């Protein structure tokens, strides 16, 4: 029976509401929830394909255990798995103390999951060694808010985007990383043509393309820029002296600091024209309402906290905070990074924004939990935690819902740490993440669409998530796993009875305890409950008991949660990046996100259509930098520094300044023959937030010199169901070559693609083995081309005249157009011979591929035209095929196509 359940997306921190459609206990479709205030029915390409990523074929379905490190994991029952884990943790704690174990969890857990892990570590075991991958994305934003405003509380709401007169987007690319926010920005510009948009980004990003003013500052020079903008505000009388006097402190000291940051000095540091610095300052200072949006470009820095503070200073100095359309608005990097911070899910925090260093706060939490004390010793943050694993200071680590063997910097050190650990537990929904290879115990967890609890988005809005289907196999909810383990461990450690400390049998009981911990705090949610959230929809905090609604904006009265009630200006000075370029490492390497992928691709990497825009990692550089190195588009390059070396393909990008390069963060060892960009990134971190500088490192880029190349294109037998097996087969080949990537492509039937390069050709016998691995060994259905002198060997297999697979060795020119025609099933039987031809362009006899208009629904112009020609109206087309109903970015073109069709077709229906 078809059912529809309200839920939220599990990707970025926008917190989009969606409607999950189920049939027979399986998720079969998703739509944006028009009633959800965060997205009002819109979804991005990732959210629009969530149902396609919910297939059980990729999931971890049963607990797996190895009792010795050199043994293979075996399937075990839950009782055996958790008993063994409790025994190992108890033995390690008894011998080495509570701080010899640690937990590393995730901003994709629900708040209730987070709460239990926090209580397990800090309340039961007595260690503060519990940190989260939010340390990698949001901890500098947290520290920046706390240093200046007094609390980790974004003061704005999404509605402020439409009310701003000046929008400063800094260190963020919402067009790619937060597409639904970007739709709001586009709406704001359409409604207010006078809106001025300033984008601060070292490269000309997709967001920078819409800017009225783009400031491509030198990497790491953010503080200099914002100090320079404050200098302009002071020089031109654009600050609000009355607001500063009544509501802030510390401005005089900062004013003395910024006196030296003249436009001339800042232009030299940042590599920007003086006139643009002055113009940006004037626009911000003269705006009726100025709003800033910022994200990882500020946070992932060795001085990320002060990057944030320097930007927040601009709002305090002009009084642009606490009113409509104004304020500093940090965009959250994960769906529930905010909720994790609310329950103290970081090594330096306690529940309800309490500080671990505060004795009174520790005593409050101890009373709430019914334990003697919360430990005083600060816990190890992410980088410190894995360093301690490597040295043996920490013996055992429990990892949940994250993939540190791909996401942390300096991957060689991280993987050495996981290898050195006495015991590694991985609680995960997917069976094949990079970290799974290091796990002694794998525990299957429920995932999106299967869980109940709450999440908090970037604007402090809490949503109650309810399950649409039951978890596959033996997967259990994250909070349930942690509770069952805690009860076992408590008995072995002779701590308070586990049933008393962890009495939960339903997530709402956990929420109720969390709610109690917030009463009287800045994030007071004493008035919220699951039933209220269900009846009235998602609500912003604070929402104390007796309130009729949450608070849309904070600090409207100019009172801040500091000891004095005043916001604080902090003296901040320009600091260089942790690594600077030199003659041996002359290129500034930046990393970032792609629109259609997420983190390490454990979920998005299972959906073929999400590879159609970017199907392999490309290093982009300015054409002049390529020319200097005798490189062309598509060449393979070695990117190296003292931490490691990776080989990737290079592409020209006019929007990348000379001396800089950009590489996506998503590819790791599951999709290429290296750990990806994080084989190169530095573990250097901010002294206040302990967030590492993932955004920048210094590298050298040289031609790889791998003359022999191999490409295998294979349609998955059985469609989606057969893809995991074929993908796993391809992955077994990654380490065989000097360079290799594997991925998906396609639409209705997925296409698995292996690309490889080597110093010398593989012998023909090995090519035959690869053919068998991919099911390309049917001689009766094969077309073969061999040129031994040129070491070229090609094979195309087309049973019944349908091309299902191609292997190109030694010459691979046709790979680009072949993947398109195979994905579209557009190669007629009589044209199959072209598959082994040495041509880089689609043969003239083949129709050109139709452009995809709606990427969310994966609908081409040809398909849309065919529907319109059959008499389908635009409204009916949207209902039937979903185009224009997700993020909405294609709606203008859809309307134009419908109008153009109607103009040439008498009687056609346009609406």
Task: Write a structural description.
This protein has 29 helices and 36 strands. The relative contact order is 0.12. The mean pLDDT is 95.
* β-sheet strand percentage: 15-25%
Given the structure, what is the number of helices?
A: 29
What general outline do the C-alpha atoms trace? globular
Radius of gyration: 28 Å
Oligomer: single chain
In order across it, which strands form the biggest sheet? 5-4-18-17-16-6-7
Could you give the count of β-strands? 36
Q: Terminal Cα separation, in Å?
A: 31 Å
Q: What is this structure's SSE topology?
A:
Elements: E1 2-8, E2 17-23, E3 26-32, H1 45-48, E4 64-65, E5 74-75, H2 78-96, E6 101-105, H3 111-125, E7 130-132, H4 139-148, E8 166-170, H5 174-177, H6 179-191, E9 196-200, E10 213-215, H7 222-235, H8 241-247, E11 248-249, H9 251-258, H10 263-270, H11 274-286, E12 290-294, H12 296-299, H13 304-318, E13 327-330, H14 337-342, E14 349-350, E15 354-355, H15 359-369, H16 382-391, E16 396-400, H17 404-407, H18 411-420, E17 423-428, E18 441-444, E19 453-456, E20 461-465, H19 478-493, H20 498-501, H21 507-518, H22 530-536, E21 539-540, E22 567-568, E23 587-592, E24 618-621, H23 623-628, E25 636-641, E26 644-652, E27 660-664, E28 696-703, E29 708-715, H24 723-731, E30 739-746, E31 750-758, H25 764-773, E32 782-787, E33 792-797, E34 805-809, H26 815-824, E35 852-854, E36 859-860, H27 861-869, H28 874-881, H29 891-904
Parallel strand pairs: 6-7, 6-16, 8-9, 8-12, 9-10, 11-22, 12-13, 16-17, 17-18, 23-27, 24-26
Antiparallel strand pairs: 1-2, 2-3, 4-5, 4-18, 14-15, 19-20, 20-21, 23-28, 24-27, 25-26, 25-28, 29-31, 29-34, 30-31, 32-33, 33-34, 35-36
Helix pairs in contact: 2-19, 3-19, 3-21, 4-13, 7-10, 7-11, 7-13, 10-11, 16-18, 27-29
